[in-house]
Amino acid sequence: MLDVEAIRKDFPILSREVNGKPLVYFDNAATSQTPQQVIHAIVDYYSNFNANIHRGVHTLSQEATDLYEQSRQKIQAHFNAKFSHEIIFTSGTTHGINLVANGFSSILKTGDEIIVSALEHHSNIVPWQMLCEHTGANLKVIPMNDQGELVMSEYDNLLSENTKLVFTNHISNALGTINPIEYIIKKAHAVGAAVLIDGAQACPHIKPDVQALDVDFYVASAHKMCGPTGVGMLYGKEAWLNKLPPYQGGGEMIAEVTFEKTTYADLPHKFEAGTPNIAGGIVFGTAIDYMNSIGFDAVAQYENELLEYATEKLLSIDGLKIYGTSKHKTSVLSFNLEGIHPYDVGSILDKLGIAVRTGHHCAQPIMDYYKIPGTIRASFAFYNTKSEIDALVEGVKKAKKMLS
Ligand code: PMP
C-alpha cells in the first residue's frame, strides 16, 4: 500500500496553484514531476562536484566521473544489463533511437525489411523512414485493432528472412496499451532480426529486465520516471554496440586521433562524444533510486486502481468515448466528447487547474486509424489521487455543458 499523502510531500510542485485552483497534474505521460530528492541531487552536484568528467586528474573531475559512472552502474542494475558498458547515456529516447537507426544505415541494403508498429510515437517512425530512404530498405507496419492493440497474426505474416529489424514501443503513449514485446522479440529472433524496444512509457510503471527479454536495444528517457529532462539511456547488447559505427564524432569517443586515421574508444565511450549532461546523468541514478524506494509493484497496483476508477467515472458521462480499451494497459486515458474538439476541453480544464494533454500525442497514425484529429489524454502517476480524478470528471462535465 502506498502512502500517497506522504509521497505527495516529496513533490513541491504538487502544492502550487494554477489559475487560482490547486494543480491537478494529469500529463505524466508527457513528463513526470520531480521529487525533492532529485531536485536536491541537482543542487548538490552543482554546489559540490561540478567539473568535466573522464579528463581531469584533479579531485573534482575524478569525483564527478565516479558519480557519473556509479549512476551508469545503477542504470545497469535497474535494467539488469549484463555489463555497465552496455548502457549508453543519451539525451533521451529520441536520441537513442536515432543512434541505432544511424548505425544500421551502414548495415542494411536494398530489399531488406524493417517492421514498426501502428502504435508508434513519431520518434519511432521518422528515424526509420529516414533509414529506409538512405538504404533502400522497406518499412512494414504491424496493424492495430479497435481496442488499440497490435494484431499479432498480421505481425507473423510480415516476418520473413528479409526482416532485419523490428521496432515497437513497450507501452503506447497515446493509448496506454502494453504491447506483447516478449512474443514480438521471440518471433523476430526466429527470423534473425534485431529488435529495438522504445521503453519511454514503460519505465515509469514497470522495471524491464533486458536479459530476460533478450532484447537487442532498449531506450528510455529519465524525465518520464521522475528524473530531469535532456538525459536518457540506450541499452544495447555488447555484440551489437561493437558492430554499430559511432553516431557522432568528437572528444571522448576516440582512442587515438591523427590526420591520417582515428581509432575509436571502447564501449560505452564510443557513443558518447562531447561533454555530456553530467548532472542529468548522475541524477538519473537518483531518480531510479527514488522510483525503487516507492516500489514498482505497489506503483502498478495503485495506478491500476486509479485507471479503473477514472474509466468508470468518465464513462458515466454521456457522449464520452475512450480510445484504447485493451485489458493490457497502463494508467493512460485517451478520450473525446462527441462533437467537441479536444483542444477546447483541454483549455477549460486548464482554467480549472487541471493539466491534461490534447492533440495527436506525436502518434498521428493512431488518430488517423480512429479518424479523429486528436484526443484528451489524462495520464496518472503514483502521486495522483481519486479526489483529483473526481475534479477531472467534474471539469469534463462542466466543459461539456459549456461547449454543447
Ligand atoms: N517514445 C514514446 C512512446 C514517448 O512517449 C516519447 C515521449 N513522449 C518518446 C518516444 C520521445 O521521448 P523524448 O522526447 O524524451 O526523447
From TrEMBL:
Keywords in alphabetical order: Pyridoxal phosphate, Transferase
GO biological process: cysteine metabolic process
Residue ranges annotated for the Aminotransferase class V domain, each copy included: 24-392
Entry keyword Transferase: yes
Domain of life, source organism: Bacteria
NCBIfam families in the cross-refs: sufS
PANTHER family, alphabetized: CYSTEINE DESULFURASE, CYSTEINE DESULFURASE 1, CHLOROPLASTIC
Protein name listed in UniProt: Cysteine desulfurase
Species annotation: Seonamhaeicola maritimus
